[in-house]
What does this fold into?
Amino acid sequence: ELAARELRERRAAYERLHSAMGSSNTAELEEAVALASGLDVDGTDIDLAKSKLEQLRSLSAAEVAAEEARKQLMETKLRAYQLVKQGKAAALGELLRDASLAGLWPHWRDHSGRSLLVYARQVKGKTVQ
It folds into this structure.
């Protein structure tokens, strides 16, 4: 039982460490490194996390803000393509009316190089065309 519990704790620490490495939250990454260090997690994973933490700490406020803006834009693009596929024209229009997206969305491309309009035609989203 003890071995199984320790294995679960170590596995949870691995998952938390890798999840924290994917985000840009330094506090979360610090906690994950501390937890992983105390639970006999592989040293290479901890070293990778520590180097990511140092990289995050070395970023300026402007670089952090730019990265957050980039992530937000990617999420918005993903949401726009989802709304096209679902045929939700009103929600798509509302999303695209955002002032920060005014001139950007016509230039968006998905992983296949399709614009929103081309994608709408291909998925036969008549309501959003």
User: Anything to note?
Assistant: The chain has a mean pLDDT of 86.
